[in-house]
Structure formats: structure tokens, C-alpha cells
């Protein structure tokens, strides 16, 4: 269950986490002139793509989760995510620290102790955000680099055009069609998830 929690937190991180500037790390662009204040507020994790074998095994049971992004005193972000686990709402908070240019953050996985980098690649602030997460040599992947693309949306059900944009983004990061999933709403649990935020 600790691995499940760790993956969810990684998936939730608008992405979706620590800077590892090595030659092996893929270079992704960042949102030009990223404005952190416009990025704050409530987001739904609506789409995911990952190279994690755990993700491939569990993607059919994942559902939309809610994240609230708030500023920290040091210029980072508090990411408080609420998700459904075993038919109960759970809430977790991660601290995303500034890690380079605006739109780049890092966090340390509470389970594996690995540093992850999260890049806000593209956002219009009002409807969607595309994030890319990377961690070098993740223990949970047998030393393989962890990669994830995340679609954050302000609405639980993003428009078809936004889904197409995310699919194109994920494929550009090397993810195949079977590694891309759009998360279903959680019905009554979803209402409970978002009602208190």
C-alpha cells in the first residue's frame, strides 16, 4: 500500500519533483513567462501517462483526484491532493520546492527517497496544464528512470480538444497509446472529494 500511495502522490503532482540535471535527463520546455500566481487554486488530475509498470497494472482502477495548489513562503508550492482509496477519501500534502527557472519544481518521494522534477510545460491557467515529471534511476522501477505526463484541468471533464492536446503531448514525450489514460470521475466519491475543497 505504501507503493500505491507513493505512486498516487507522484501522479497527483501536477506531476506531476527534484532537479537532477544529468546528461540522461530529457529536456522539456517550460511554460514561457510562467506566472505562479495564476497557477494557484484547484485542479483535477484528469489524464496520466507513465512508464511505471505499477501504473500500467493499476491504471484501470485510478480515478480523478483533486489538488489544491497554494504558495509557500520560499516561493514553492504546497500541493494538497484528495483522492479515493479503498472507497474512502484521503488527503496528502507535498511541498514542491523551486528548482531552477519559473515553472520547475522538485520534491523528494516520501517512500523511495528519490528526487523528482516536475515541469509545467504548458498552461493557459484557466482550463488546463500539462506537466512532466522525471526521476533518475527510481528504485521502484528497478533503477529505470521514472517518467510521467500529467493533465491538470480546472473542470473534472476536460474538453475533447484539451484531451487531444494531452495525448499529443504525451506521445511527444515517448509514451505509447496504451500508456495514456484519461481518469474517470468517481461518482458520489468524486462529489465528496471536491465538496470540501
Automatic annotation (TrEMBL):
Q: Does the keyword Nucleus apply?
A: yes
| Gene Ontology CC | extracellular space; Golgi apparatus; nuclear membrane; perinuclear region of cytoplasm; rough endoplasmic reticulum
Primary location: cytoplasm
- Look at the named UniProt entry and state the broad enzyme category this protein falls under: isomerase
Signal peptide extent: 1-24
Q: Does the keyword Secreted apply?
A: yes
- Gene3D superfamilies xref list: 2.40.128.20
Q: Which InterPro entries match?
A: Calycin, Lipocalin, Lipocln_cytosolic_FA-bd_dom
GO BP terms in the entry: mast cell degranulation; prostaglandin biosynthetic process
- Localization in the cell: Cytoplasm, Perinuclear region; Golgi apparatus; Nucleus membrane; Rough endoplasmic reticulum
Q: Where is the Lipocalin/cytosolic fatty-acid binding domain?
A: 41-186
Which EC number(s) are documented for this chain?
Answer: 5.3.99.2
User: Domain of life of the organism in this record?
Assistant: Eukaryota
Q: Which UniProt keywords apply?
A: Cytoplasm, Disulfide bond, Endoplasmic reticulum, Fatty acid biosynthesis, Fatty acid metabolism, Glycoprotein, Golgi apparatus, Isomerase, Lipid biosynthesis, Lipid metabolism, Mast cell degranulation, Membrane, Nucleus, Prostaglandin biosynthesis, Prostaglandin metabolism, Secreted, Signal, Transport
Pfam family membership, one: Lipocalin
Q: What are this entry's molecular-function GO terms?
A: prostaglandin-D synthase activity; small molecule binding
Q: Which reaction does it catalyse?
A: prostaglandin H2 = prostaglandin D2
Oligomeric form and interacting partners:
Monomer.
Record-linked PANTHER family: LIPOCALIN, PROSTAGLANDIN-H2 D-ISOMERASE
Recorded family membership: Belongs to the calycin superfamily. Lipocalin family.
Recorded protein name is Prostaglandin-H2 D-isomerase
Q: Which organism is it from?
A: Diceros bicornis minor (South-central black rhinoceros)
